[in-house]
């Protein structure tokens, strides 16, 4: 008897050791990879960028042999941002590309720089249009715009914001030098919410429709997400549930909102476009009133529900809600929203014609594979761009990015401002 139980004990220990060993192996080899950036992919993409640019430059020589030589511009971009500012960064890069095209110059694009990353990341891993349409990477600067050449103009445009944009286009077009290197930024953080920024919009909207393209990495994950969460890929598609997206900003945003209230600031960037001025959830924002700013910047859950109710009345066939968020603090609020929005009684009480929401999903449920976390901002933006309805936060740069990409719309998004609510 004793020997059998001893044997059993021994084999149990043996199994336990093997399990522990396999677990360690798993966490070392696989789980660790999940959060690490895909550096080998980035290296390959950098090479591809070089190749594409080289081909493009060669094709220019053939076409433009008799005409003027091709001209270039390098702008002064923001540097070393943290991951969360990617939306600001991307909007700035798109605007600079647009500006370069308007100035008839080839855009010299810079890699993505994040504080938390050791190396610079290739822009084409995130945004593809910017890197493929009359653009070359900044690794070509030495070759195209050598430091000692008299054919390189280092310029500082020293004007107030309203004239800055127009004057820069003028300079880009008129200057004879092959290269222009701008030593000061053209766009500051308030530009897009100013009348000068708004006057840039109609042409930028066309730019977005024509040149904006995600990387294949972002698009692959988005595609997988639509399948995995059973959401509709395109407005006109018949598969999957039509859905609305809510952009939820919680956690640390509360502090920022308090500062914004003190400074009496209005909505940010493209969220201030006249085309969507009627999209703001009632009561209208009054920046001079701190309570009003907090209501819009850090809305209560009941205010958020009100926005969802209104859109659910407009489009009762939408029975799926996808919530984009980037912090753990949102989880309890998501759970509260889910409980309320899936309640039959509540749906009856609020007169939803087809009953409560069937599906509530969120950013945390996107089926990322190992090494894909760097793409999460792009995935969230694209999920929101494709949604039939978008409910965003007027004080958020990410919301501004989504608004611009929706209004810039192609066949995917309707570009209808009624389909946007700003909290
Ligand atoms: C400030 O805004 C809040 C919320 O919208 C409103 O209830 C209050 O009356 C406003 N105060 C003033 C002085 O306008």
Automatic annotation (TrEMBL):
TM region(s), chain numbering: 12-31
Key words of the record: Membrane, Transmembrane, Transmembrane helix
Domain of life: Eukaryota
Official protein name in the record: O-fucosyltransferase family protein
């Amino acid at each position: 008897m004793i020997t059998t139980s001893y044997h059993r004990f021994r084999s149990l220990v043996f199994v336990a050791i093997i399990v522990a060993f396999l677990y360690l192996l798993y966490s070392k080899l696989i789980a660790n990879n999940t959060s690490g950036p895909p550096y080998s992919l980035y290296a390959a993409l950098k090479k591809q960028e070089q190749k594409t640019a080289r081909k493009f430059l060669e094709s220019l020589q053939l076409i433009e042999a008799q005409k003027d030589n091709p001209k270039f511009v390098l702008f002064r971009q923001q540097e070393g941002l943290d991951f969360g500012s990617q939306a600001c960064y991307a909007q700035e890069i798109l605007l600079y590309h647009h500006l370069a095209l308007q100035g008839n110059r080839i855009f010299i694009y810079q890699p993505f720089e994040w504080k938390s990353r050791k190396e610079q990341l290739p822009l084409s891993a995130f945004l593809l249009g910017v890197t493929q349409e009359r653009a070359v990477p900044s690794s070509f600067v030495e070759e195209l715009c050598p430091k000692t050449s008299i054919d390189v103009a280092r310029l500082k445009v020293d004007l107030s914001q309203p004239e800055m944009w127009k004057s820069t286009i003028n300079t880009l077009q008129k200057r004879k030098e092959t290269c222009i290197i701008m030593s000061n930024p053209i766009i500051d953080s308030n530009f897009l919410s100013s009348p000068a920024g708004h006057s840039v919009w109609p042409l930028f909207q066309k730019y977005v429709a024509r040149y904006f393209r995600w990387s294949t990495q972002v698009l692959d994950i988005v595609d997988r997400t639509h399948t995995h969460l059973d959401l509709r890929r395109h407005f006109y598609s018949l598969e999957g549930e039509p859905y609305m997206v809510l952009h939820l900003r919680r956690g640390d945003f509360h502090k920022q909102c308090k500062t914004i209230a003190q400074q009496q600031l209005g909505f940010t960037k493209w969220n201030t476009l006249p085309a969507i001025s009627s999209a703001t959830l009632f009561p209208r924002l009054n920046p001079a009133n701190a309570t009003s700013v907090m209501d819009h910047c850090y809305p209560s859950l009941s205010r958020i529900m009100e926005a969802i109710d209104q859109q659910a009345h407009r489009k009762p066939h939408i029975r799926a809600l996808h919530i984009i968020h980037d912090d753990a603090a949102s989880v309890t609020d998501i759970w509260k929203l889910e409980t309320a929005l899936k309640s039959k009684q509540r749906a009856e009480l609020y007169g939803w014609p087809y009953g409560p929401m069937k599906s509530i999903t969120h950013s945390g449920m996107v089926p990322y594979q190992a090494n894909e976390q760097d793409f999460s901002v792009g995935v969230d933006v694209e999920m929101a761009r494709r949604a039939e309805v978008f409910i965003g936060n007027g004080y958020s740069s990410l919301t501004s990015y989504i608004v611009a990409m929706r209004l810039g719309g192609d066949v995917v998004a309707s570009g209808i401002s009624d389909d946007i609510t700003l909290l």
